[in-house]
Amino acid sequence: MRLHLLILAALLALAGCSREFKMGAAVQDYAAPAERAKSDSRFMAYEHSIQLELTEDRVQPVYEAAQAACKDAAAEQCTMLESRLDTGRYASATLRFRAKPAGLRKILAVLTAQGGVVNQSTTAEDLAQPISDNARKLEMLRDYRAKLEALRGRASRDIESLIKVNKELAQVQSDIEALAGQQAHLVQRVETEILNVSLGSAHSRGFWSPVWQALTGFGSNLAEGLSSAITAVAFILPWLPILYLLVWGVRKLWGRMKRKGA
Predict the structure, then answer these.
(1) Which of 152, 164, 233, 236 is the most buried (most CB within 10 A)?
(2) Phi/psi of residue 123, each to 5°?
């Protein structure tokens, strides 16, 4: 009985520490040391954007060249996150890559060699504080887990206490895995960079391009016009008998009124 009481008291103390950790985390975030305020380039997450204006016939080749450059940069962890190609009128394409800086430089070299760069920009986000905070919280959770595991060994003969310890351990393990996933994502953001690519042709069409597009679309436009005319006739036909009777009735009534007036 005395051992049971000791285990329960230890559980309450550990649970209190856990609550104190969870409730006090937000306060400790604001009580960061002075050196945390200093920006560290190792923890900067960079995102680049580049926009090219090309002739319509060059949009798809440049789009494919950028994809090929990413494949060539596989050693630099290049991954294509998004791609879209529109080969209709006013061809355009968008691409989004993630890679280490050396890999993105390869893609940028391929794109800038094509000419037609109209816009290029870079933004950065400092992730030093969230990475530091997550590392500290993970350390505290792992220390708490170690204490729970030690307590579980002591409570092996008390079923009720063992159930409580195992339940708390499961929750702590879940918190550790969730926080570790967030930390891995943050580390990936600082170790790799993002590149957004936009390819357009709206401002670089030749003088005869609209004329050629009108000629190539003549057949389809004619077919659409004929289909619209046929549809209109189909809507009008059922009303023709009614319109005929209405006109006949109006003319007959008008004739009677004229005869009476005479």
Answers:
(1) 164
(2) -125, 155
Token reading at 82? 């998004």
Residue 59: both structure tokens together: 């949009």
| Residue range(s) defining the domain that contains residue 103 | 41-127+192-200
Specify the residue for token string 């069409």. Answer: 205
CA angle 234-239-242, nearest 5°?
Answer: 160
Instruction: Give yes or no: residues 196 and 96 share one domain.
Output: yes
Q: Domains in the chain: how many in total?
A: 3
Same domain, residue pair 66 and 158? no
Quote the distance between the C-alpha of residue 202 and its chain's center.
26
The tokens describing 126, both together, are: 């400092």
Q: What is the pLDDT along the chain (262 residues), one digit of tens a residue?
A: 333 434 444 444 444 444 433 433 333 333 333 344 345 678 899 999 999 999 888 999 999 999 999 999 999 999 999 999 998 778 899 999 999 999 999 999 999 998 889 999 999 999 999 999 999 999 999 999 999 888 888 776 778 888 888 899 999 999 999 999 999 999 999 999 999 999 998 654 455 556 656 666 677 777 788 888 888 888 888 888 888 888 888 887 887 777 776 6
- Give 150's contacts (C-beta < 8 A, 6+ positions apart): none
Tokens of 240: 């023709």
Q: Parallel, antiparallel, or unpaired for β 92-99 and 193-200?
A: antiparallel
The size of the chain, in residues, is 262
DSSP H helical ranges for 155-216:
159-191, 209-216
pTM to 2 decimals? 0.57
